[in-house]
């Protein structure tokens, strides 16, 4: 029997959009600049599965000059890539923290950092921090966790959350996450503002858009589930084809793979016809739960890091150009 050989590259369909830069993204960038005068610390959230792809240079520019820590969210979903955390820690040093909503100790670590910063700032009005990041990287979930762990006797869910991009549409009011000194906390307390996710104005690489869609960073349906499942099959074959052994033997054929998923998990239409759309959605759901491997999607090789640094230093287009490109893409897709 011939040895299985995985695909070494993925052909990105031309239909994949190159941006998801909406009106409220543009408005959020402008609004961020108006609140910075009262911000002592920026908490930038990035998805640990996409540590490069969820770094937005536009946000970096908008909050430049303000002390910042980087919180890599959903850390548990990248635990099969053990070298990734060490590499990111080496890149960012003490500025990098790794967070997982299911591990309270990671929330406690961030609260400790906020308290340390509050002591250093020593403001009579308390420390005010601002959470920023790309859409659906876990900003609001993080805020709720900080509130729940850092305060007592208060409403714990203060920010609306969801498993899709665009739940938060405007900068919220400040939320106390650490009590003042007289209530067992520090100084005048610690307050955090949530903000809307802001997408990149333009993404030259279609593969990056697919990866962001896999982690639900853009609106569902902009990239068909079948394309996302095919990309995931490509990546799983490179990681370890045994990840999907419960469905079928190693294959590069997405039709064959989804057919096996439909048969095993009962994703069938009337008359027993396989429902390929439902099968693709099932694959994505299982992967997002960590049941088809917990790997970092981004390439973290030295070459990839250098390319990313160059891109971050000189983003492809300006905000206005990105907005125009997004409108043109939508017109083209609707034609």
If you had to describe this structure to a student in words, what would you say it looks like?
- The protein is an alpha/beta fold and 335 residues long.
- The protein folds into two domains: 171 residues, P-loop containing nucleotide triphosphate hydrolases (Rossmann fold, 3-Layer(aba) Sandwich); 129 residues, Conserved Hypothetical Protein Ylqf, Chain: A, domain 2 (Orthogonal Bundle), CATH 1.10.1580.10.
- Helix content is 41%, strand content 9%.
- The protein has eleven helices and six strands.
- Strands 3-2-1-4-6-5 form a six-stranded mixed β-sheet, with helices on both faces.
- The longest helix has 18 residues.
- The N and C termini lie far apart (47 Å).
- The model has no long low-confidence stretch (mean pLDDT 88).
Task: Give me a quick take on this structure.
The protein has eleven helices and six strands. The chain has helices at residues 23-35, 57-62, 82-92, 104-121, 139-150, 206-214, 225-239, 254-265, 276-288, 302-313, 319-334, and strands at 41-47, 68-73, 96-98, 127-133, 175-178, 190-193.
